[in-house]
């Protein structure tokens, strides 16, 4: 009897005994990364880009890696493609390219590129809230109309008070003829904050449009149209058309 034949164990016998299929692992290691996270960056380091091109793990040595790295560095430094060169504290050089440039390079040379495009968080927020913004715009337009109506009421408050025999404006309740609203409250609050700090005879003592709108957005509502409407209502016309502040003239010193 041949001793070697007794010692040899067939692959099929092992698979049958273990209940599994045994195959040699000749597969090249793949890039194991959530590529959607790269959409958070407007630019990517060319080291990451090349690993994605070749579908290999980050930091994995590869002869094609060095070849592509040299080609990209040469293209960036000689301005054949758009890229950015950065330097760290120790003077080491890093190279960055945009998603579009990486995608075009991959298409040109038949490389892999399945990374989502860069997503600007501000643009995403605007896109996701477009319907909400449409509704808000309608509400703001209505609010602007109400403020215009209130301006008329404020201008004739003395006459109206005589007709109905009570004070038209309730400064404690922030109401006019018993009517109040969230936006009307803001009007009263803003006027209350700066009225005692300005000189009616000095238009330069009033806050600028930018100061007033920034104050409204910070403490009451970040809506641009509402801030603009309130500015138009509560600031006198001669203040809106004031020119450059003459030297020595007192200016607005803040809301606090």
Written overview of the protein:
The chain is mostly helical and 256 residues long. The protein is built from twelve helices and five strands. It has helices at residues 3-7, 11-18, 46-54, 63-77, 99-109, 121-128, 130-155, 157-164, 182-194, 209-219, 224-234, 237-240, and strands at 43-45, 84-87, 93-98, 169-170, 175-176. Strands 1-3-2 form a three-stranded antiparallel β-sheet. Strands 4-5 form a two-stranded antiparallel ribbon. β4 (169-170) and β5 (175-176) form a beta hairpin. α7 runs parallel beside α11 and α10 (209-219) crosses α11. The radius of gyration is 35 Å and the shape is elongated. The model has no long low-confidence stretch (mean pLDDT 80).
SS content category = mainly alpha
List segments where confidence is low: pLDDT < 50 over at least 5 consecutive residues.
none
Question: Mean of residue pLDDT?
Answer: 80
Question: Given the structure, what is the number of helices?
Answer: 12
Q: Using only CA atoms, what is the Rg? A: 35 Å
Main sheet? 3 strands, antiparallel
The CA-CA distance between the termini, in Å, is 104 Å
Using the alpha-carbon principal axes, give the shape: elongated
Taken in chain order, the helices and strands follow as HHEHHEEHHHHEEHHHH
Give the strand content: 5-15%
Q: What's the arrangement of strands in the largest beta sheet? A: 1-3-2
Binned, the helix content reads 40-55%
What is the number of E strands? Answer: 5
Keywords: Coiled coil
Coiled coil: 126-167
């Amino acid at each position: 009897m041949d001793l070697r034949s007794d010692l040899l164990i067939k692959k099929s016998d092992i698979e049958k005994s273990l209940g599994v299929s045994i195959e040699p692992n000749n597969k090249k290691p793949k890039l194991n990364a959530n590529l959607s996270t790269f959409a958070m960056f407007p630019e990517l380091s060319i080291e990451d880009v090349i690993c994605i091109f070749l579908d290999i793990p980050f930091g994995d040595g590869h002869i094609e890696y060095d070849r592509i790295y040299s080609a990209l560095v040469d293209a960036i430094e000689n301005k054949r493609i758009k890229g950015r060169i950065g330097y760290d504290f120790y003077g080491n050089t890093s190279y960055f390219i945009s998603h579009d440039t990486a995608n075009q390079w991959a298409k040109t040379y038949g490389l892999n590129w399945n990374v989502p495009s860069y997503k600007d968080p501000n643009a995403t927020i605007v896109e996701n809230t477009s319907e909400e913004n449409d509704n808000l715009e309608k509400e703001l337009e209505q609010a602007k109309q109400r403020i215009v109506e209130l301006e008329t009421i404020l201008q004739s408050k003395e006459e109206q008070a005589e007709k109905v025999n009570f004070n038209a404006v309730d400064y404690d309740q922030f109401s006019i003829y018993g009517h109040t609203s969230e936006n009307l409250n803001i009007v009263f609050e803003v006027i209350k904050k700066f009225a005692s700090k300005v000189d009616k005879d000095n238009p330069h003592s009033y806050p600028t449009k930018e100061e007033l709108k920034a104050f409204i957005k910070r403490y009451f509502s970040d809506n641009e149209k509402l801030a603009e409407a309130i500015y138009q209502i509560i600031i006198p016309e001669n203040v809106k058309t004031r020119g450059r502040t003459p030297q020595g003239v007192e200016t607005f010193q803040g809301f606090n």
